[in-house]
Amino acid sequence: MLYPSCLRRLLVLVSLLGSLAACAPTPPPTYRIGFSQSVSAGDWREAMLAGMKREVSFHPEIQFLTRDAQGNSRQQQQQVHDLLDAGADVLVVAPNEEHALSSAIEEAYRRGVPVILLDRHTTSPHYAAYVGGDNAGVGAAAARYAALRLQQRGRIVEILGSPSSVSAERHRGFAQALRAYPEIRVVGEVVGDWGATSLQPALSRLLQTYPETDLIFAHSDLMAQGAYEVCRRLGRKDIRIIGVDGLPGPGNGMEMVQQGRATASLFYSPGGEEAIRVALKILHHQAYERENILGTIVIDSVNVLTLQQQATKVASQQAGIEQQQQLLRTLQATYTNQRTALYGLLATLLAAVVLGASAWRAARSNRRINRELARQNEANDVINRELVRQNEANDVINRQLSTQNEEIRAQRNQIAELAEQARVETEAKLRFFTNFSHELRTPLTLIMGPVEEMLTGPHGAALLPSHRHDLGLVRRNTQRLLQLVNQLLDFRKIEVGKMAVQAREDDLVAFVRELVETFEPAARVQQVALLFQPAVPQLPGWLDRNVLDKVFFNLLSNALKYTPAGGQITVRVWPADDGQALQVEVADTGRGIRPQDSPHIFEWFYQGEQPATAKGSGMGLALAQGLVRLHQGNLTFSSQLGQGSTFIVTLPCELPAELRTTAALPEALALDEPRALPIEDLTAETAAGQEPLVLVIEDNADVNEFVARKLQPHFRVQTAADGSTGLQLAKDLIPDLIVCDVMMPGLSGLEVVAQLRADWRTSHVPVILLTARTAPEQQVEGVQAGADVYLTKPFNPTFLLESIHTLLANRARQHEHTRRQLGAAAQATPDAAAPDPNPDQAFLQALTAQIESDLTRTDLTVEELAQALGFSRTQLYRKVKAVLGTSVTDYIQLVRLRKARELLLNDKLTITAVAYEVGYTSHSYFSNSFKARYQVSPSEFRARHLADSA
């Protein structure tokens, strides 16, 4: 039997035990995150898994389930189903192939389990989030960094990984970004298996084939290591190597950059930590991004030491964190064991009390329990203080990382601003040169035109010899100035990538022989021996004569310029590289090139020490080298001071398909070449003594006056000083022909032509464009706008005059053709002719429709007809006269009689009724007009028709 005091103590112990049980920490909820990866081999995959485990270690409530398919897509699909069956709340999947896991992801979607794709997408759209790098951005960043290191000029070899979406996207980004740098060319590609050895034989052969290679871009650091081994064996330490991954640790990208085995490595984040963070947001029902694209940075000698130190520091701190977490787990285990022991002790004490233990034993047990709880509380306080210190350390680390990231971003932005500033300044310089070169062509027109006319005109024979000599001197120097202007324009085209190679199959020996023969007279005058020594009679290959003509012309000009009297110039042509290449050598015995000038002779506008008699512009050799490179070739030289110089042009026999052409040059591009043109009777007006009207639109007053003066002896001439005024004059006067400049302030020549062609009043007027723009694509643009002839300044005045005569003669023939068509239409059925989209035909259709709508009116006037069509009376008369060669009144009568012919086929209408229907008030006048047109009276026409029908 228990005493009342013992019973009270027993109740106190029971209530104390219940309170302790209630105060025990409630276990946190447990989530399962499943991770399925295609393969775990490789440092980058290991870094991905390590990052995920590192992030999970901060969340004890997470159970992390991993599966490795070891490269087998079918096995990975089965493992995804296993993780779903294991109760995974979120799936993180790193697929190997796009199509292999689509069915498994669809199954997860049906079960309501979110799927996070890591590093690669699949064909299934039912995924919750994607975490991975921008492979196309990595390729583009590699291209921009390569262009920066190569100064936008060089040759590159690309090493691709085994075929996959990652390799394809990196290659596409790299190729697209390189299009901005036309001086950089990818000479070859090698496909590896993401390892260091399989690519080496193919890369060795490629580098031996293209010894001019400057840089190698590998899609991974491991393949970059293989490329380094190949370059080391070939002795090519000058080749720069760029890899991808940028991981810390032995043998990875950071170590390769620091040791000089690679020029740079692009950091490609494994994304493990980010994937776990997105999974936690999904589990905790927080907002998250569906597409999480990880950034990349370039790791090179500038920042590798800082980044490696950061990585080492982070690894050290992570190790410290893991030690603290291990200590925390140990303390938590101790705490759990102590709590279990305490509960057992309380149960024992309770049993002892129930069995009749004494009150003293119960009191001593209570004191012991209290002391144990106090010690446990002290231990908990120590743990809490340690956790606080650890959190503070983590905050310091995060602040340091944030500061370093800000510094890296600031440096990157500064570099980008400097690059953009340099690009803008370069573009402004090139635009200045181009505009300045175009402006020079206008005064050259005013110089060469009169000079050519004086030398070749009817009064040329009367010139004194001294005057003819002086004029010849002016012509030669004007042509020299025009050559310099053309070189500036070629320089601009090469810089902006607008000069394209259009090669055709040709004989290099015959081509070079023609050029050498053109220099033979000048060589004889300077007493220089010019020898041509081809190694073979013929040397076929793909050549662009327009490009190579400028190259060899500059080389021969320089050789002749710097070779003294009694010297010799030798031109040799021979096959090279076992018939795979062509070589042309130009050697002279001149003064040679100084050693200090040799590194700079191919730079634009560089001029070394030159004699006063041979002063140049500094553009010839730079232009030659740029054109040879454009032709996929190479220009080299050697020189000894006082003994002469040798320049060698090496060209490939074969060229890529995009550089070949079999099409002939469009006729429109050669319209400024002189030719024999027929001069015929122009129009009915000319035959009657009325000269054609020519409108000259030119903003340069001197050129305007010069062209008008040359045309006034042959035509009536009207002038305008700008496009807007000229367009209005053209609409008011309806001239027979227009001569218009292209580059004018306000309304340009191309816009004037476009508006002329769009207006019914002026759509028929021939237009000759004058311009300083000489590029073929600019000439095509002028012809496409509607110009009939495209002449480039400076032009031959005689050729301009003959072009005008020919265009007016062609228009006269067109009038006759149109009249014959109208006659045929009058004999055909009304629906025989289909509508023509030509503007002049559209005008005729509108004019005919307006006449037919007022056909019954006997008082229809030309003024009313012109007002209905938006013309003045004069404009309508000149338009109809220009298109049809007849008057408006005659055409109205033609339409009336053609309608009458149709109505006469209906025997229910009398001839008088038909006359009234087509606007005739007099039966006799109608009959006479009908018989004059069709050589038969209306009654005879109807009778014949009825007889034919019967």
TrEMBL record:
The keyword Transcription regulation applies. Its EC number is 2.7.13.3. Residues 693-808 form the Response regulatory domain. Residues 824-839 have a biased composition (Low complexity). Keywords: Coiled coil, DNA-binding, Phosphoprotein, Signal, Transcription, Transcription regulation. Residues 845-944 form the HTH araC/xylS-type domain. It comes from the Bacteria. This is histidine kinase.
